[in-house]
Design goal:
Largest sheet: none
Order of helices and strands: HHHHHHHHHHHHHHHHHH
Number of helices: 18
Low-confidence stretches: 1-6
Shape: globular
Number of strands: 0
Amino acid sequence: MSDATLTPTDDARAKRNVTILVLAQAILGSQMPMIFTMAGLAGQSLASNPCWATLPISLMVGGSMVFANPVAWVMQTFGRRVGFWLGTLGGSLGAAISAYALTQADFTIFLIGSFLMGLYQSAQGFYRFAAADTASPAFRPKAISYVMAGGLASAIIGPQLFNATNDMLVVPFLGAYLTIIAINILGAFLFLGLDIPKPPKPTADDPKGRTRRELLRDPVIAVAIICGMVSYALMNLVMTSTPLAVVGCGFETDMAGNVVTAHVLAMFVPSFFTGHLIARFGTRKVIATGLAILGFAGVVALQGVELENFFIALILLGIGWNFGFIGATSMLAGAHAPEERGRVQGMNDMIVFGCVTIASLASGGLMNCSGGSTVEGWNAVNIAMVPFLALAGASLIWLMLRPQEDVV
């Protein structure tokens, strides 16, 4: 059934799929706040140079970029379920290698494990697209938003698991990585209930769709990719440095985890109504609001390094990411034909996670190697947001000045 023929009465199956994907986002997704809380700190303890502290996160996100097109091809060829199982396999193996590296205090092996964990993050990025596969155009923004809302539970489950398992064993962080292995193995069973038709094998008479170059020339697709890329990259830029900044300013590691928890909650709580806002006001206005909130987060962070500054800035960062990224995803989902789905989604996530990789790598360099103090490094991280927000804002204004383009 093509997107064009789906109607609200067909959404019963879509709602069942959304339920499964929400659970996957909540359970499997709980490993992400765990990783973002501890990977930089673990990297700082293993690396010989503190400038490379966030390299494990960078390589994980880089893995997401590298695996984006292969995962998209697997899903287009064998179906969503197989692609999601592939992701849980990567998460399990990556966590196992990382756990072994911690026992050996080997930074290189830890980096290999982190890179492989990017396979899970890449597959997780397709949850939102899978939610739209069987949804009618009217239900699509809400389906995407509800699946993203599953991250609310992961924001609670992940940090609690981290706090409970982090010091469970003699080697720091080892218990948490072993827990991630269990999460991936158990979470894989969720996808048995997923009911998304396997894409039919293409025939010679089927429409081929546009090439990647032609797709990138589409103004709506280009702007959606830019805004999604900037929203995700800036969120990652600041979030990656946050545990280092909080601990570097004299607060306890558990407090860094609490700040990350507040941030991840802010990333996903708005998802309960983001889809409704998109349906009412359109993607462009929601994306613009998200970009403005991201900018305001940077302003708050630059006002000081008291604990309340970290909490408020990271909460705003999460809300801004939610509006910007879900808005961009909804815009992209409605801007291509079904036969272009795998090509567009793989290309989008490759570009987005490529820029997120650069942002996470730059985060550690800015935080630890710019200026002579934690405060100067933290300020450099937040100032770095400005040119990218300008790029996304300018591209969105350009699109808004093209009334002849279809409004998504």
